[in-house]
Amino acid sequence: MNQGRLAVNRLRERLPLDGAAIDRFVARHGAPIIEGERATFLFRGEADEVRVRHRVVGLPDPLPMKRLPDTDLWAATTVLPAGSRVEYQLETRNGEHYATFNDPLNQRVAHSPMGSSSVCAATGYQVPDWVHHDPEARPGEIVEDALHSKSLRREQPVKLYLPARYNPVLRYPLLVVHDGDDYLNYAAMKTVLDNLIHRLDVAPLVVAFVAPRDRLREYPNHAPHARFIARELVPALAERLPLIDDPQARALMGSSFGGVASLSTAVRYPGVFGSLFLQSASLVFTDIGNDHGGGPAFDPVVKFVNRYRAKPTAPVERLFMSCGIYEPLITPNRSMVPVFRSAGMTVKYVEARDGHNWEDWRDRLRDGLSWLFPGPQKFVYE
């Protein structure tokens, strides 16, 4: 599309403008305005500066907005390829006062443990239909449980997902999910499981959602955490529930630091799990020196990944990986795929035009779950 014919540029050609004309423009087009592979962000208000803040690698951050002369309308246009989905906020400066907030002209919002952000979806992106409640899908059940952990020296809460039509005389696969509360709250994982099992995309399975107390300490290759997962949680669940007694029917899952926790647990206890599901895993490493740029929290991550890269092993047979191409972790994730394959694991790797966020991870759930736990006709229950 010719940038000179963008809606905001056609508006500029009509200057000077009164408030009513701008009202009609915003009401007609909404915000951001998506035209082909360009997105135009808008803001109305008095400010010394207005900027778009985001975490999209490859685009200027912040992205400065320009005021249309003699109006209170600000605009900034950038390239946004088809299928993209990005999260952002707006930042204003008035004198020495800065404020950051969600786009007041955009009702589309994504949530995370850190708060909320506005969402800009390019042409071709759609929220998967299996993310929303399907009245025809029988709901599974979330059961609150807890396990006294000697390794962690505390009571560790666990939320268990039992699929619809759960029957104790059958045997079920097991998926253990790091940051379990966040997957439930921000990635709609219970609804996704209900829908995918109903559609026969995914086998009925038991899912254990676990949450850390100190994520930055327990997730980057932490021996007590790994021992809890492999030597306490899995055996305890096997005693309480009718699980398939086969590593190939067990998988470990996590995003970001939870991906590191999943991999490092499997490396410490090879053969306990048959599969891993890693989403935007923080697999940061250095090829020379120690300057990884991630701060002290990444020191144990880099030490673990450097050691693994030097001597790769195959703690599981199959590994599903996903990552957003707009996040800084895309380079280490891409780099680790051949390392994992060289160790002998079967790897399926997918990328999305998205960033490091929960809705990106939500949107990849069907890809990963249906590959790791394919429809029930492919499982033989005992």
From TrEMBL:
Keywords: Cytoplasm, Hydrolase. It comes from the Bacteria. It is found in: Cytoplasm. Its main location: cytoplasm. The keyword tRNA-binding does not apply. GO terms for biological process: carbohydrate metabolic process. The keyword Cytoplasm applies. This is Enterochelin esterase. It comes from Pedococcus bigeumensis. The lineage of its organism: Bacteria, Bacillati, Actinomycetota, Actinomycetes, Micrococcales.
